Amino acid sequence: MFNWKQYQSEIILLTVRWYLKYSLSYRDLVEMMEERGLQLAHTTIMRWVHEFGPELEKRIRPYLKPTNDSFRTDETYIKAKGQWKYLYRAVDSNGNRIDFMLSENRDAPAAKRFFKKVLTSSHNQSPRVIAVDKNPAYPAAVQQLKVKKVMSQETILRQQKYLNNIIEQDHRFIKKIIKPMLGFKSFKTAEKTIAGIEIMYMIRKGQVEYNHSPALSAVELINKLFCLTV
């Protein structure tokens, strides 16, 4: 992936990692790199994030630790191209990230797509219970998945807002990282960037075990995933 790049792979991954992990704007990173003697355009860093954020998610997913069967599901708002979009997110009862999905709409088909993504991710198991808020889209989506035998008939759906405090608190981290970005230019760029942010948060929470080595730092882990020497 680093062929024909003007800058070293270490610099590319450094800027991508910092942008996805901390509350920084592209221009903040430009200034930080200038202090290291590197002249980068903010658009260059933006292209790197859009390219390597989704790739990072793809390479890390096989190493995610299993989550438990008690889901907490909710959606939060993300602005893309001046319009509000919906970021579906779920954690287990221990606060470990289950999955995420950006959607144009907040309705039963969107909730259904999100649950199907959750159920096909290898680190998740079939839910025993799913806690959601009073959004009427969730019961409809769950019922449709049960009819199609995608979700177990034994799965219990609980629409009790207080049970979702853990996921609502978890939204705050994502909001904190996204705030300096001042919105996304398009749905696609939002999707790519958020994929990287969510995966970096999973690393931070210790949800990744690379070849039975859970103690690797984020730098070591990412370098190994991209076949770079540490």
Report what the structure shows:
The protein is α/β, with parallel strands linked by helices and 230 residues long. It has a domain at 66-184: 2-Layer Sandwich (Nucleotidyltransferase, domain 5). 46% of the residues lie in helices and 16% in strands. The protein has eight helices and five strands, in the order αααβββαβαβααα. It has helices spanning 9-21, 26-34, 42-60, 108-120, 137-147, 165-178, 187-204, 218-225, and strands at residues 70-80, 83-92, 97-103, 129-132, 156-159. A five-stranded mixed sheet has the order 3-2-1-4-5, sandwiched between helices. α2 crosses α3 and α3 crosses α7 (187-204). The protein is globular and about 60 Å long. The mean pLDDT is 92.
List the topology elements.
Layout: H1 9-21, H2 26-34, H3 42-60, E1 70-80, E2 83-92, E3 97-103, H4 108-120, E4 129-132, H5 137-147, E5 156-159, H6 165-178, H7 187-204, H8 218-225
Parallel strand pairs: 1-4, 4-5
Antiparallel strand pairs: 1-2, 2-3
Helix pairs in contact: 1-3, 1-7, 2-3, 3-7, 4-5, 6-7
Structure, briefly:
The protein is α/β, with parallel strands linked by helices and about 230 residues long.
